[in-house]
Amino acid sequence: MSSQAPHSTLLIPGPIEFDDAVLQSMSHYAESHVSPAFVKVFGETLTLVRKLFQSTKPSAQPFVISGSGTLGWDVVASNLIEKGENALVLHTGYFADSFAACLETYGAHATQLKAPIGDRPSFEQIEQALKEKPYKIITITHVDTSTGVLSDIKRVTEIVRRVSPDTLVVVDGVCSVGCEEIAFDEWDLDVVLTASQKAIGCPPGLSILMLSGRAIDRFKSRKTPPSSYFASIANWMPIMQNYENNKPSYFATPPTQLVHALHTSLSQITARPMAERFAIHAQTSDRVKAAIADLGLRQLASQPESQAHAMTAIYLPDGLTPADVLPSLLKRGVIFAAGLHKEIATRYIRFGHMGVSVTDPARNDIDKAIVALKEALTEAKQAKGL
Amino acid sequence: MSSQAPHSTLLIPGPIEFDDAVLQSMSHYAESHVSPAFVKVFGETLTLVRKLFQSTKPSAQPFVISGSGTLGWDVVASNLIEKGENALVLHTGYFADSFAACLETYGAHATQLKAPIGDRPSFEQIEQALKEKPYKIITITHVDTSTGVLSDIKRVTEIVRRVSPDTLVVVDGVCSVGCEEIAFDEWDLDVVLTASQKAIGCPPGLSILMLSGRAIDRFKSRKTPPSSYFASIANWMPIMQNYENNKPSYFATPPTQLVHALHTSLSQITARPMAERFAIHAQTSDRVKAAIADLGLRQLASQPESQAHAMTAIYLPDGLTPADVLPSLLKRGVIFAAGLHKEIATRYIRFGHMGVSVTDPARNDIDKAIVALKEALTEAKQAKGL
């Protein structure tokens, strides 16, 4: 039983439901950001980020910074690519457009490789594109929150290493870290950026990044200085290294309560093998997808191999919009999200299945949501005379 | 009585002690950032920021963004000044050096007007500097957390309007907003940037800004696009306007729990006249400064008119360092901060007196701290044979 105030179950693709202990960490009493107790908690949190990414290479560097997940794009765009250099942006939904806009703000040339809605660029297209010009970075949205499309970052990285080995592989893992398999070292990734409020199960307000030694080296060999101050790797790296070495350090005040909450959530997550966590998210996702099919509904993500395990984007029956269905779900104590992809936003809804709603056997969130969805659809169709 | 776990009293110049209700808001259950309930809370919070700044002009625009106070510098440097333009940076401690570094990161020319440690540039020097070349912005650290020096932002703004009326007046109010008098409209300020964790009494993790209509106009007439993405006014302004008009909107996920805490804290602060809040901070500061003098100690801020009401930076007796005194204070349940100004960091300590420690009559934090300081100094001198 949760000790939280009664509330509808939040099953959007982030923020997600919290574990009680995580939420209790948010109300930690006032603490100096350079006190020995907090330095220890922050340092341990950074080490837990390594475990989250299954990374053991000392050359890899975790970052935990006050900000939204979006800030991670600025970190990449202002540090790992320079004005006039090329970025290949794999497009599987809304978030690639935004990442490209961020890259161009800092002067990079972003070339988008787009797939039809619900699909992803093919491996052949990616290989072909990489051969056409030299790309400093390639960006991949691991799970695009607007479409629920999953990218195969392992396979894409293999292609990059074969065809364009110097290109840095940058993964936007905002909607994947903590539930989709990521083996940072083994897959030879260069950057994974994420946020606290999705499958990590912490409240929003933390930008979390993991950088490879190769990415750090590339940063150090920049010809021009980094073009951001708050998002500067040069400003943050000594801070992260000092805290992890149990030394206080100051660049900007860290959000102490959020760091406590992240410490609690990562301690819980990494207490079990990551493979087990990925498996239970995959099983739950399969169950959701089967239920969606049983209801005669289609997903945005058309192919099984490109369907995220963190969420499902569901086309509504013809004639229904999110406004016909979401209030009816809410009446049943379940919160889903409306569509986000501009071209088809009114035609679909999004169901997030991550974190405690999936892993805590004492909760019944997913089954409750499936039942609620069935009832809400029936109700909405009747109301519309469909 | 506080319902918080027992802990030493945090009297550093931020973060500060929290009110129970503020801290309880931090553990608000999971909520969608676009739900009607949260949209209302965020919208009201923005309106409360206007009250905090005693601003009623519809052309002024509040911002509440996930990030540290430092992020406010990037907002200024990437939006309100362009490459090659001049910024006059009034230097009263560590934070002017950092703000200047941020401005230069984005290509501005920062000219620092420096005063000796503990002093501030004179009005004559400022007037002279403004006449020497055209400055797009002038930056003033209202209270420099490293020195406890207070600047007279009202008077400086009068000089700017007389001598260089187009120059935007940018106030770094991280250590002043919520305890030092600020009349945003009446004083004709253009930007005040601050953070949640100082006199506002909220946990760290929010960058808070107020921009004048003049600043917004100047932004809109930029010749080049803004040079940041996460810190872009263009990206955030529609979001803030929509939320304040009770409409959900998305650019990056707001830190919902921190916004609740800020809502609670600003509701408490603005429930009483701001003048009363400024007065009680001034009275408490006077009491602290008198006690410091009674102990035979000097402040870094040499002149009464340039001594902050939020904090006191105190020179230690010759032969003592912070390491001799801070542990002894901690033993007595009081946490002060070490020195921060590089040149003299080992020669002084900092005592923050803001927020509930000052305004809550049920607390005895300040008197306890004064007694503890007296005892700790005696103990430290004895230990050193002084």
Descriptive notes:
The structure is a homodimer of 386-residue chains. With 386 residues, chain A is of the alpha/beta class. Chain A has 2 domains: 7-15 and 272-382, Aspartate Aminotransferase, domain 1 (Alpha-Beta Complex), CATH 3.90.1150.10; 19-268, Type I PLP-dependent aspartate aminotransferase-like (Major domain) (Aspartate Aminotransferase, domain 2). Helices cover 40% and strands 15% of the residues of chain A. The first copy, chain A, has helices at 20-25, 36-52, 71-79, 94-105, 123-132, 153-163, 213-220, 233-244, 256-270, 274-294, 322-331, 356-359, 365-384; strands at 9-10, 61-66, 86-91, 109-114, 137-141, 143-144, 149-150, 168-172, 191-195, 206-211, 311-315, 334-335, 337-338, 348-352. Chain A is globular, with a radius of gyration of 21 Å. The first copy, chain A, starts with 8 loop residues before the first strand and ends with a helix. The mean pLDDT of chain A is 97. At the A-B interface, helix 3, helix 4 and helix 9 of A face helix 3, helix 4 and helix 9 of B.
Q: What do the pLDDT scores of chain A average to?
A: 97
CATH class group of the largest domain in chain A: Alpha Beta
Structural class of chain A: alpha/beta
Strand order of the largest sheet of chain A: 2-10-9-8-5-3-4
Cofactor (chains A, B): pyridoxal 5'-phosphate
Domain Aminotransferase class V (chains A, B): 28-341
Pfam families (chains A, B): Aminotran_5 (PF00266)
GO molecular function, one term (chains A, B): L-serine-pyruvate transaminase activity
